[in-house]
Specification:
The structure holds two protein chains of two kinds. By secondary structure, chain A is mainly beta. Chain A has strands at residues 4-7, 10-13, 19-25, 31-38, 42-51, 54-57, 65-67, 73-78, 87-94, 104-105, 109-113. Helices cover 0% and strands 54% of the residues of chain A. In chain A, strands 2, 4, 5, 6, 9, 10 and 11 form a seven-stranded mixed beta sheet that branches. A four-stranded antiparallel beta sheet of chain A has the order 1-3-8-7, with no helix packed on it. In chain A, strand 5 and strand 6 form a beta hairpin. Chain A starts with a strand and ends with a strand. The relative contact order of chain A is 0.32. Chain B is 0% helix and 52% strand. Chain B contains no helices and twelve strands. Chain B is globular and about 40 Å long. The relative contact order of chain B is 0.33. Classes of the chains: A mainly beta, B mainly beta. Chain A binds chain B through residues 4, 31, 40-45, 48, 50, 56, 58, 90, 92, 99-108, and chain B through 9, 32, 34, 36, 41-46, 49, 90, 92, 94-100, 102-105.
């Protein structure tokens, strides 16, 4: 039971470098999300997707881009990393019929930008 | 704006004692409310939800939550805490068909 898998789990970048985080889910879920988690701030939604080929902005989209070319994958890109993007990133998914409540989360990707 | 607040950053209890983690909400209309738990170095796990019906909702791992409309609260409870319940707990509210808003989280420490 893989569920939601995120790669890589850890990454250190220098300011200005680019990278992509990959999220894969094997539950045939329609909705997928990218959150960032920072101490004392809970989870904040970066971008989300309600189906293959569609994406939308969340609360904190600046500096990030996403793509959902296949239903099972949701990619989060940083074109020019900044120290403010140091965070733990979580991908989540759920079935459309369930609404947004019962999310399945990956184990997180810890990103440090120097 | 619709949101939830968790007024306590940390909760410390002794094993075997009751555990309560507080959450208050601010929404228009009827709220859809959720609790999640995050164990160290793991992703969040869904615990329980309130949509409608009984004000007392039962969830995973022996947890329950009480919806109180007059106090706009949705507190998470466990009658007898275990050391293994030590984790970070998040309350969340449904914003629309696609999105949740999470509280800042409450760290629970259960001492043996």
């Amino acid at each position: 039971n893989a569920g939601v898998t995120q790669t890589p789990k850890f990454r250190v970048l220098k300011t200005g470098q680019s990278m992509t985080l990959l999220c894969a889910q094997d539950m045939n879920h329609e909705y997928m999300y990218w959150y960032r988690q920072d101490p004392g701030m809970g989870l904040r939604l970066i971008h989300y997707s309600v189906g293959e080929g569609t994406t939308a902005k969340g609360e904190v989209p600046d500096g990030y881009n996403v793509s959902r070319l296949k239903k099972q994958n949701f990619l989060l890109g940083l074109e020019s990393a900044a120290p403010s993007q140091t965070s733990v990133y979580f991908c989540a998914s759920n079935r459309a019929a369930k609404g947004p409540g019962e999310l399945f989360f990956g184990e997180g990707s810890r990103l440090t930008v120097l | 704006a619709q949101s939830v607040a968790q007024p306590e950053d940390q909760v410390n209890v002794a094993e075997g004692n009751p555990l309560t983690v507080k959450c208050t909400y601010s929404v228009s209309g009827n709220p859809y409310l959720f609790w999640y738990v995050q164990y160290p170095n793991r992703g969040l796990q869904f615990l329980l939800k309130y949509i409608t019906g009984d004000n007392l909702v039962k969830g995973s791992y022996g947890f329950e939550a009480e919806f109180n409309k007059s106090q706009t609260s949705f507190h998470l409870k466990k009658p007898s805490a275990l050391v293994s319940d030590s984790a970070l707990y998040f309350c969340a509210v449904r914003l629309n068909d696609y999105k949740l808003s999470f509280g800042a989280g409450t760290t629970v420490t259960v001492r043996a």
